[in-house]
Amino acid sequence: MAALLEAATDPAYGAAVVAVGADREAEGISRAAEAGIPTFVTPFSGFADRAHWNAVLADRIAGFRPDLVVSAGFMRILGPEVLSRFTVVNIHPALLPAFPGAHAVRDALAYGVKVTGATAHFVDEGVDTGPVIDQVTVRVLPGDDVASLHERIKTVERRMLVDVVGRLARDGWTLDDRHVMLGAEPGASSYVTEENR
Predict the structure, then answer these.
(1) The domain 1-182 is classified under which CATH number: 3.40.50.720, 3.40.50.170, 1.10.10.10, 3.40.50.2000?
(2) Cα(148)–Cα(146) distance, integer angstroms
(3) Cα–Cα distance measured from residue 61 to residue 23, given in angstroms and rounded to the nearest whole number
(4) C-alpha count within 13 angstroms, C-beta hemisphere, residue 158
(5) Where are the domains positioned within the chain?
(6) For residues 160 and 156, what is the distance between their CA atoms, to the nearest angstrom?
(7) pLDDT of the residue at 74
(8) Quick one: which of 35, 102, 122, 165 could link to 130 by a disulfide (CB 3.0–4.6 Å)?
(9) What is the model's pTM?
(10) DSSP state of 70
(11) Residues with catalytic roles
C-alpha cells in the first residue's frame, strides 16, 4: 500500500488511490490518513456471517467509486458480494498455482524448491486461484528461512504490484479465459533484475 501511495504521487503513473480500507486498525490505515487519503475499517467480528460482512464491505468500497480494488496484505477471502461488483487484484508470495494460501513461503521452503517468487492475480472466489496477471521469480538461497526469503519476495512484490496496477490503469487489459493481456504488450515486464533470474 505504501509503495502504491508513493507511485500515485507521480501524475504520469496513471492511477490514484481514492481510499484505503481494512478489516482492523493497521499501519496502512495510519499511513494513508497521514497522506490525506480517506480510510475506513470494517471489522469482520462485527457481523453475524461472512456474507453480511462482504455486503457491507462492498457498499463501503462502492462509496469511493474505484475502478480497481487492490488487496495487498488483506488476509480475508472476499465473497461474491464484493467480487461481483469490483475487479480485485491481489499479490501472493509464490508462483501460483504452486503454494496457495496463507503459508506460501513456509510451504515452498518445506517442499525444497530452488526458485519461488511472487504473483499478481485477479481475485476470484477461490483461494489464490484467479487468473495470473504477472509473476516474478526469486531464487531460494542456502540458509534461507521463512523470514529472509519472505523479505526478498516482498521487495519484488512491491515493484511488481506498482508496475501491474499502473499498467492496468494506463493501458487496460483483456481477459481471454484465464489469459490476461496487459495493454498492447502482453507479458512485458519492467521489474525483473539480474538478481532475481
Answers:
(1) 3.40.50.170
(2) 6
(3) 12
(4) 12
(5) 1-182
(6) 6
(7) 87
(8) 122
(9) 0.89
(10) E
(11) 92
